[in-house]
Amino acid sequence: MINFDWLPEKTRLLLEKLSRCSFIADFYLAGGTAVALFLNHRRSDDLDFFSEKEFSQTLLVKKLKEIGKFEGLKNAENTI
């Protein structure tokens, strides 16, 4: 069972906001946070999303900025 208590409050609130956005339907949560939610073994505060579909980086960044503060750490092809 997924336990969202393992997420810091800001991360949990952001995940809730993202889950209400239609554009996120093409992405899935992966990485350490996804594992932590599944195994309930540790806290994790970053959200790693992946998509099998191609996406516009410019459009995605615009949509993320509409949700709140956005800081991209890496900008490469198919990566934000």
Describe this structure in words.
The chain has 80 residues and is mostly helical. It has a domain of 50 residues. The protein is 39% helix and 8% strand. It is built from three helices and two strands, in the order αβαβα. The protein has a two-stranded antiparallel sheet with strand order 1-2. The mean pLDDT is 88.
Give the percentage of residues in beta strands.
5-15%
Q: Order of strands in the sheet with the most strands?
A: 1-2
Sheet having the most strands:
2 strands, antiparallel
Tally of extended strands?
Answer: 2
For this structure, the quaternary state is single chain
- The value of Rg in angstroms is 13 Å
Distance between the amino and carboxyl termini: 30 Å
Helices and strands, in N-to-C order?
Answer: HEHEH
The number of distinct helices, counting runs of at least 4 residues, comes to: 3
What is the topology?
Blueprint lengths: L8 H11 L8 E3 H9 L8 E3 L6 H11 L13
Keywords:
80 residues; mainly alpha; 2 strands
Sum this structure up briefly.
With 80 residues, the protein is mainly α. Helix content is 39%, strand content 8%.
